Amino acid sequence: RKPVVLKGMELGTCTTKWTVDYLSQAEGSKEVKIHVSVVPQMDFLSKNFVYRTLPFDVFVRRAAEVKHKEYFLSEDEKYYLRSVGEDARKDIADIRKQFPILAEDVQIPEYFDKEQFFSSIFRISSAGLQLWTHYDVAAISSNVIMLCNCWNSRNSYSLLLKTFLGTKSEVLDVDNPDLEKYPLFVKAKRYQCFLEAGDVLFIPGKY
């Protein structure tokens, strides 16, 4: 019942095939809704980001850039894609439905019975992006984060096999927390790991 990093997993051809060019061509110009922020720490509580829509191939290429020639807010803005269903409020995220061509490249480890599978959330982000911290109050099942591929050690594609949406924390920058505002954070036990392509991070339910 503790988190663990599993090395050398067989996750399919996504660990070798998923490059900027391949992703762009595979799913083409289908439109995706993304988060755009001018700062690297995205905050879900204060909403310091905006939602924008881009063709998937354009988004992938922008996410691979450090400085942008075309942008929404600033030339060094950060991008984040979290796949959702056609109806974000009702439909469960499933890479097999939202990105069927890319899903063929992914081999999901069989750690659970098929009826226990809830969702598969496909994510892509710009380099250096930090998402808001959160915890899953109602999560009784486990989460599995698969790092499918990365390029130039800067950008990554991950697939999160998840159970429920969670509750967001007000502590935004875990590296430099405001201890005057959140004095108990100093007592928090920190777990840190570095994932490489093909690695899997297992997080037990209720952890």
TrEMBL record:
Q: What is the lineage of its organism?
A: Eukaryota, Metazoa, Chordata, Craniata, Vertebrata
- Gene designation per UniProt: Tyw5
Give GO terms: molecular function aspect only: tRNA binding
Segments spanning the bilayer are none
Q: Where is the JmjC domain?
A: 97-207
The superkingdom listed in its UniProt entry is Eukaryota
User: Which is a GO BP term held by this UniProt record?
Assistant: wybutosine biosynthetic process
Q: From which residue to which does any coiled coil extend? A: none
Kindly give the SUPFAM superfamilies that the UniProt entry links to this protein: Clavaminate synthase-like
Q: Which organism is it from?
A: Fregata magnificens (Magnificent frigatebird)
Q: Name one Pfam family in it.
A: Cupin_8
Q: What protein name applies here? A: TYW5 protein
Q: Sorted alphabetically, which InterPro entries does this protein's record hold?
A: Cupin_8, JmjC_dom
